[in-house]
Amino acid sequence: MSQHFIHYVPRRIVSRFPDDANHPWFADVQALDAGFFRPTFHISRRKTGPTQQVREGDTIWILGQIVSPWGVLPPGIDARIEVERVERGRDGALRFIASKQSQWFPLSDISHTLPFLKSLAGQGRLNELLKDPAAPIGRSLQSMRLLASAEPLEEHLGKLSLQPVHFISYRICDGTHAAFVKTKALLAQQQVVFWDRWSLPRRLAERRELVDCEALDCHLMEQLASAGTVWGIESPAYSAEGSYSQKEKIKALQLGTYHAVAGC
């Protein structure tokens, strides 16, 4: 019988990136198009606890939360890893290879679902997943936990699938703050959001590793085309010639989904 685990990984708004190719952030070589359409793996370096119990066929739910210079956004379900196999590195780290059934999810506030989750401890004892609901979730989920049931998460995703997605179009150089503010406002209205700081692979959103430009183009345009609304953060550099935001604005105007938002 398969088991469900849950792990927290923060997502950070990074404004300065290391440019040394030997920096640890650049050390994990991947295919240039890996990770756009589904997760490819998850790594844990914990040598004790539930991490060591994960087996082929199990599910790992990845919870995340955007941390920025302007505050934090509500936590959300970042991904569901359906474990195809487990690999152990030389340093003892466990690498959980994701099957093709694994998924990324757009950003949505899961705060109201978390109190219904319980974890299984030794001898089958049930514990509240969040011991202190007022504390940052990373404090309770800094290590992987075994879930008693994933049903509350599945119910949340069922509701999420029925809602239109709001796409945030902006320029990183001068529109990130305004994009954060708009995303926060949408989440407060219980909306579902595609913002690249959440929805792109971390190696691109938080680092600056080389990726396949065609795969990135395809992914962004597919997400924009399927969105109910595209919010253009019209900062001074927005829709500059040759920029992604220019492509996004043109496409959204053609689709009739474009709405302008003033930059901060």
Automatic annotation (TrEMBL):
This is Uncharacterized protein. It comes from Pseudomonas frederiksbergensis.
